[in-house]
Every structure is written in structure tokens, then in C-alpha cells.
Amino acid sequence: MPARPRQDHLDTLAIALLLGCCLFWGAQQVLVKATVAEVAPVFQAFVRFAIATAVLAPWCLWRGVPLGTAREPQGAWRAGLLAGGLFAAEFACIYVGLQYTPASRLTVFLYSAPFWVALVLPRFHPAERLVGWQWLGLAGAFVGVALALGDGLLGGHAGPRAWLGDVLGLAAGLLWGLTTVVIRSTALQQVAPAKQLLYQVALSAAALPLVSLALGERWDWDFSAFAWASILAQSLIGAFASYLAWMWLLAHYPATKISVFVFLTPVFALLAGAAWLREPVTPGLLAALALVAAGIVLVNRRPRSLPVK
């Protein structure tokens, strides 16, 4: 089968995959929150990425993707290690930050990632540059997220060290954005998406247990059926299937345009919380959904073609 050519806009397939990923990522936050009482946060992330690595490596072999570096472009393995290190550091910041600030507050800072991508990536790929109305859409989508998470942003439930969680959340957003930039601007972009993901989940599986031990988390493998189901869903659907789809999308579509879709994730998380935890759906949430939707439309609006002379 011939390789799929790179697209300059999002088609129906890309939009469907992005919506599916964001929907699950939003629901996954509720799963993580519901499982934290039983499984420590960073330890939970370690188990998730360890299972994902154990599944992804055979997948690569089955798909004919070599696990070694001999057939990779020069310098790709270094970029892969850098992307993997950034990815692991991002999740360490997220889970450590959650110890100091509410999840809703941290999420606002985490989803600054599309701004970092839009600021940095065009320096390497001018075609990824956003124009006036697209910047307006990006800002509108972020405002929508902030509105949806307004209680956390105002700090009404934040503790005295919430500033530390805020800084870690902002750092996680920066690390996520830089991971995307590394994938799109180095020789790593010539590596199969599954191998790109393997670098990230494998390094996370190696690094996160060290973070967990440093935090003094309890390692208890006597999980309930719900906890195992939650972790397996996070591993097989989240860290394997959805992240593999994300890597494939980065390889075939403009990163600046697909990144803005992640603003849907915290909104979907609130909707999942309303459905599962009976949290209220307020007029502010509905307004946030409208802002996020409008922002995505503006960012992905195709420029009008010039008339042919």
C-alpha cells in the first residue's frame, strides 16, 4: 500500500480520530481520579506505560517496524531519546503537580501546549505558521477551557502551595509542546509513528518508577477489579491506541492545527464528570463548549484560494 501523503488541512478521518482521542483523554482523567484512592498517581502512570510498552513492542514487530536503530535516519535515535525524556518529564510534572493543586487548575496550565507548538514549530516549519484569525481561534479555545474550569482557575479550592502545582502544570504544557516540536522538526519525523511512541512510553516506563520511589509512594499490587480495569483501559486505549493515533496524525497533518483539538479534552473531562460523578453542567460550561468549538473552526479554517489568472 502506498504511503499516505502529508495533508495541509484536516480531513474527515483526522477530525474523527482527534475527537475520539480527546473524548477518551477527557474520560481518562475521571478514571485516574477514581483510581488514585487505590493506586498512587505516579505508580499508576508507571504501570500504565509499562503495559503499553509490553503491547507496543510486539505491535512494532508485527507491523515490520524494527526495534533497533540501524535502519533509522542518522540522529533519529537521539531525537527519540529526547522526545521520550520530555514525555516522561511531562507526566512526572503532571502527577507531582496534582499533589499541590486541584486537577482543574493544573489542567488550565497543561493545555497551554498548543501555544508552545504554535510559537516554536513555525521556526522549523514555516508552513505551520498561524495567521491572524487562527491566533484568535487559539486564544478563544483557551479562554473556553479557562471558563469551563473557572472554579479551579480562581483558586477557591487551591491550597497554600498551589503555585507550585501551577508551575509544574505550565512546565508539563511546555514539555508536551516541545515533544511535538522534536517529533516534527528532527529526523524522528522519518521514523514510523509506532516507533516514535515506543521511545516515549518505554522511557516513561523506565523513569517514572524512580519518581514514584522518590516521592515515597506505596507500591501495592493488590488492585481491585475496578482498578485493574481502569489501568488496562488507560494502557491499551490511552497509552497505546490513542497515542499511536496521535503519533500518526502528527506524521500526516499540520501539528499546529491538530494541537488545538486538545482543548476539547478538559471540556470532555467535565462532561464525563457530570455523567459519572453527577457534577452539574452549568451555562458557563455550555459557553465554554461554544468557545472551544469556534476556536477549532477558526484555527482549521483554510485560507481562501487566490483566483487563477
Automatic annotation (TrEMBL):
Compartments reported by the entry: Membrane
Domain of life the protein comes from: Bacteria
Residue span, EamA domain: 13-149, 164-300
Entry coiled-coil feature ranges: none
Annotated InterPro entries: AA-Vitamin_Transporters, EamA_dom, EmrE-like
Record keyword Transmembrane helix present: yes
GO cellular component terms, A-Z: membrane
Membrane topology per record: Multi-pass membrane protein
Keyword terms of this UniProt record: Membrane, Transmembrane, Transmembrane helix
Segments passing through the bilayer: 45-65, 77-97, 103-121, 133-150, 162-185, 197-215, 227-251, 258-277, 283-300
Broad class of where this protein is predominantly found: membrane
SUPFAM superfamilies named among the record's database cross-references: Multidrug resistance efflux transporter EmrE
A Pfam family the protein falls into: EamA
Family per record: Belongs to the EamA transporter family.
Name of the protein in question: EamA family transporter
Origin species: Melaminivora suipulveris
Lineage: Bacteria, Pseudomonadati, Pseudomonadota, Betaproteobacteria, Burkholderiales
